[in-house]
Amino acid sequence: MSKEQPPPYPADPVPQASVYYPPTQGYSPYPQQQQGQPPYPVQQGGYPQQQPPYPQQPGYPQQQAYAGVYNQPGNVAGAQSGMLKDQGFNYVGGDEPEDEIRGFGDKAVRRGFIRKVYGILMCQLLITGGIIATLMFYQPVREYCMYNVWPFYTCLGVTIVSIIVLACCESVRRKAPMNFIILGLFTLCEGFLLGIVASRYDTEAVLIAVGITCGVTFALTVFAFQTKIDFTMCGGGLFAVLIIFVIAGFIMAFLPQTKWTMIAYGGVGALIFSLYIVYDTQLMLGGKHKYSLSPEEYVFAALNLYLDIINLFLYILQIVGASNSNN
Q: Are the CB atoms for 227 and 290 separated by under 8 Å?
């Protein structure tokens, strides 16, 4: 009887299941895991969790990452991107050109600048009108100013210094509240000087001059807003005419004056400052005009328009007063 022969090779051990297969139903399109890899996280239904960005599926358009609501073409919010950009937001994407965005922002800033200028100008005119009315209708103040010259020369000196500071010192007229303080002093002193001048005329003549000045200023402002003629290129010519007019005024002070010379001189002065109202209004408007003021120059713009209006009032008052005289 022969002994059992040992097998030539040791018996292979029974393989142990070391790989985790996710439970699936039917056929699964996902490949099987390799040995040593962690198991896939299982969703309901046995499919692994996918993380973005998702794979491109055949037959569907290219998927893009979401970039916010302001980059959607045709969106109403996207049209306001210029304003948002001025408030610290950055415009992202879309089909709106950069120059249009900048233009929208510039228009919004310019509209705010115009509102600020006319607000300051309205306050100046109200203060001036109140001072003129006080000097004309309050008899004690009127008599005191008639018989004392120091208030006149004091206000004249403060007016000259204030207008030089506002016109020549850019850092002062752009810095609040110093610019408003100097402008307020100038307005008070200028109103006092106008009140002294107006108190020498009849009340009827002053009221007529005020009405004519309001009507002319309103008409010229509407014209400056609507016209396509660019008056900002006429600054040099207007300044030259103004210099000639001032020199002629000094010469006329030493010549005999009649009713008609006063009317003619007042008419020329009213015409010059009417043109200056249009010129300074278009400088403030900016836009398609060749020259324009910076939005930081709201005090300077209000000062220009105020000087134009009060000079127009003075020359119209001179015309009305000369027309009512018998000389």
A: no
